[in-house]
Amino acid sequence: MSRAETQPWPIGVFASIDAGLGVHLDVAQELNIPTIQLHAPHASSRTPERAKSFLGKLEQLGIRLTAVFGGFEGESYADIPTVERTVGLVPSATRAARLKEMKEISDFAQLLGCPVVALHLGFVPHDRNSAAYREIVAVTRELCSYVAGNGQNLHLETGQETAEALVAFMDDVAAPNLFVNFDPANMILYGTGEPMSALRLLGNRVQSVHCKDGLWARNPGDEWGQEVPLGQGNVGIERYLRTLKELGYHGPLTIEREIPQERERQKQEIAGAAELLASLRSKLLS
Ligand code: MG
Questions:
Q1: Neighbours of ion ligand 1 (CB under 5 A)
Q2: Which pLDDT tens digit goes with each residue over 158-185?
Q3: Ligand 1 centroid vs 57 CA: distance in angstroms?
Q4: CA of 188 to the centre of ligand 1 (A)
Q5: Which long-range contacts (CB under 8 A, 24 or more apart) does 248-251 make?
Q6: What is the CA 161 to chain-centroid distance, rounded?
């Protein structure tokens, strides 16, 4: 473990091994970023041999893996209705296959010694008395119980629900290893609530975070907001870190910047985000 990451708020970046979301590992290395969250590789890459070689690479680079994010074939974030139709464990046609795949991803994460698996669950139905809602509660509980068997926690990415709805949902699942990966920009992009009040309401359920920024849409909730470089949006990054400090959050600050079609710009903007976070960290924690 490098000295940098024994401190609170180690900087991180969302990364991938193959063609998933997130930057390639060499970007983390070149920018000297000590932790990553990993977008789960495709099934063909989730072998014990690949796990061993990836783990060796992380050790050699001195990078710590803090979470493995599940993602599935057929998901699209093109617009809000498409997310609703395609993302996570909510769409019923793909649910059983995706649950099986999340369990395999949990097994792969365990081979990597990673204690956290995470995902976008999808748009949870709003009627807590509906059969559709109860099915999502049940599938989430089953996944929590499976990952617990691997000694892991499950983190739900925020965005598709208001914080109030997410708290109610987590209470209904009632699994001791269910937590939140808080993404303040998603609250803005999806129009699901003011990020700081959401963060306060979720409180110590938040066990990992994304550092991402965004601008509100003209009609929040009906159309996408716009993702922008960290510090240039409506999140208010200093206020974000102050709120995390108030909540006693000491975990990684994982930068997420999803412009995979523009690798050079993505790298530059991640470098800028890492500098901003490092300077705010010295300001707020010294
Ligand atoms: Mg995110």
A1: 183, 210, 256
A2: 999 999 999 999 999 999 999 999 999 9
A3: 25
A4: 12
A5: 248/204, 249/206, 249/209, 250/8, 250/9, 251/9, 251/66, 251/207, 251/208, 251/209
A6: 14
Would you say 222 and 216 are in contact if contact means Cβ atoms under 8 Å apart?
no
* Three-class secondary structure of residue 5 per DSSP: helix
Going along the chain from its start, the domains and CATH numbers come out as 3-285 (3.20.20.150)
Q: Which residues pair with 16 in a beta bridge?
A: 24, 39
| Centroid of ligand 1 to alpha carbon of 183 (angstroms) | 5
Per-residue pLDDT, 142: 98
DSSP states of 159-184: SSS-HHHHHHHHHHH--TTEEEEE-H
129 three-class SS: coil
First to last CA, the chain: 22
Q: pLDDT tens for residues 2-32?
A: 444 568 999 999 998 875 567 788 889 999 9
Tokens of 101: 């795949």
Contact 115, 152 (CB under 8 A): yes
Give helix then strand counts, H and E, for the chain: 10, 11
Average pLDDT, the chain: 94
Q: What is the DSSP string of 88-128?
A: TT-SHHHHHHHHHHHHHHHHHHHHTT--EEEE------S-T
The encoded tokens of residue 149 equal: 């068997």
Global pTM value: 0.95
